Amino acid sequence: MSTPAPVVPPAVIGMLGGGQLGRYALMAARTMGFGTIVLDPDPASPAGAVADRHIVAAFDDVAAIEELAAVCAVVTTEFENPPAVMLDRLAGHCRVAPSARAVAIAQDRVAEKAFLTDLGVPLAPWATIDGDPSGWSDPAACLPGIVKTARLGYDGRGQRAVVTLDDVVAAHRGFDGVTCVLERRLDLRLEVSVIVARSASGAVATYPVAENHHVDGILDLTVVPARIGADLAERATRTAVAVADGLDYVGVLAVEMFVVDGPDGATLLVNELAPRPHNSGHWTLDASATDQFSQQVRAVTGNGLGDTGLRHGAVAMVNLLGDLWSAGEPDWSGVLAEASAHLHLYGKAEARPGRKMGHLTLVGDDPDGVVERARHLRDALRRG
Q1: Which of 87, 97, 85, 126 is nearest to 13 (CA)?
Q2: Is this prediction's pTM over 0.85?
């Protein structure tokens, strides 16, 4: 099948989802001259605030989907849980990227792990947890482990640590009996991710491997380049490209991986896929020749992919969660006084504990230095 012609301005790009990822992607699209429209049920959504138009409706609202299809040349998404059936409906009228198939795989942990297994990608031991325990296939091989709901879990939600089979049964019941996966708990050396962009022509561009640190299941810190060595970084990049090719993916995809020690040295195991720009790629806004959001627009419209080179020796990003607002609006003067710091706030009306309200990036010469300075600036906000 021939590659479709590129979509160019002033064509309209539609966005399913109104969060900060959609906000940045549509800001990039508007800078390039595209029209923009958001479908999201929240009238105060961050992306809706910057779009030319905001359709306030549920993602399964057929009339709203048809309204979106009528005006858009291409529709993309900023989260992994839009109804795949609605993506299929949109695809009958306009270009949709990533495809309904790719999103459906990534939004279901069972489907995702089955796809990766068939692709030959290494994973931690896992089992499907569904129905009566007598039908489960050898869950003991995955203990101690973590039970995760197959759908709708993110930022540590929908997860429970387990040690025994009785724990697994209790966790499954605690999640109301929905389909889950049980993953073997690993002794991790590190978590990393690769952001890969792929166009319909099969052209691929990858960003430097990111090193990620989580607190309570939420990404806390990203540092680039990852401190894992050139050989492991190359293997991580090859794995991410293989996943994107296997999905016939179009857009920006994040492939999250675990680094574990094995008998023959460090091993990479794929953890999860995110079919969209990713929190661990926010550093690209301030330290890459082409940020991940501009790249998303380029990829889904079928235009040439941008340069992904790192413009500084190193960059660190720390998330700013709603906890920082517990005593009122933080004093940003210290952050803004730092020449190498970049503050990003997402325009969310309500700060809640654990909610991502913004992020802070620090650029510099070496990874250790930027990590120390980024944490120091955020800690000063906490003390204030």
Answers
A1: 97
A2: yes
